[in-house]
Amino acid sequence: MLVIRRDLVDAMVAHARRDHPDEACGQIAGPEGSDRPERIIEMENAERSPTFYRFDAAEQLKVYREMQANDEEAVVIYHSHTATEAYPSRTDIKFANEPQAHYVLISTRDPIEHELRSYRIVDGVVTEEPVKIIES
Amino acid sequence: MAVTVSIPTILRTHTGGEKSVSATGTTLAEVIDDLENNHGGLKARLVKEGALHRFVNVYVNDEDVRFAGGLEAAVKDGDNVTILPAVAGG
């Protein structure tokens, strides 16, 4: 289960809406081993594409170093789907390299109602999990 | 020519769980060959058909090697090599 503060959910959705129709991507860092997302980091989608995303490599290194210095890890890795449901695509599964992360998908295909779902992706196997939003 | 190589979580099965290991070489290709000698299986995760995998980012200090010669990127004593799998999808 992903337990996450309301303000972090709102921030991910706002980011996804802002970058629509391109895919938005980012991560939420938390203390290593805590499984507690705390600090949202909106990442540049180097692909600037409605069907693909990739963290900008230079920004990824900078953020990685920050997280290491703070003893943090990526608790959530999120991105949006702008024309399809919030379910991992074949490429999402292929490139999922963080077994400890919650992969959050946000669909912005409906202009009013978004869809937000969370998954574990380990060795190519997708497992959906409940999302518990706590009031911040 | 000893360098320190940071290993991402997903590849630590090849290093017995170590987050960073040391290796030697004067180019990235030599460093990867040396890594392979001590941590078998790593090279195949980084190199495909004589080039770096498209979805693995490798940095020498703060520089993405894609812009510094790829596998031929020069490394010198004391450099830090960081390996980060691309975070990508569709």
Could you describe the 3D structure shown?
The complex is a heterodimer of chains A (about 140) and B (about 90). Chain A has a single domain, classed as Cytidine Deaminase, domain 2, CATH 3.40.140. Chain A has helices at about 5-20, 55-70, 90-95; strands spanning about 1-5, 25-30, 40-45, 55, 70-80, 100-105, 115-120, 125-130, 130-135. Chain A contains three helices and nine strands, in the order βαβββαβαββββ. The longest helix of chain A has 14 residues, at about 5-20. By secondary structure, chain A is an alpha/beta fold. The radius of gyration of chain A is 14 Å and the shape is globular. In chain A, strands 3-2-5-6-7-8 form a six-stranded mixed beta sheet. In chain A, strands 1-9 form a two-stranded parallel ribbon. Chain B has about 90 residues and is α+β, with helices and mostly antiparallel strands. Chain B has a single domain, classed as Beta-grasp domain (Ubiquitin-like (UB roll), Roll). Chain B has helices at about 30-40, 40-45, and strands spanning about 1-5, 20-25, 45-50, 50, 55-60, 65, 80-85, 90. Chain B has a five-stranded mixed beta sheet with strand order 2-1-7-5-6, with helices on one face. A two-stranded antiparallel sheet of chain B has the order 3-4. Chain B is globular. The relative contact order of chain B is 0.25. Classes of the chains: A alpha/beta (about 140), B alpha+beta (about 90). β4 of chain A pairs antiparallel with β8 (about 90) of chain B.
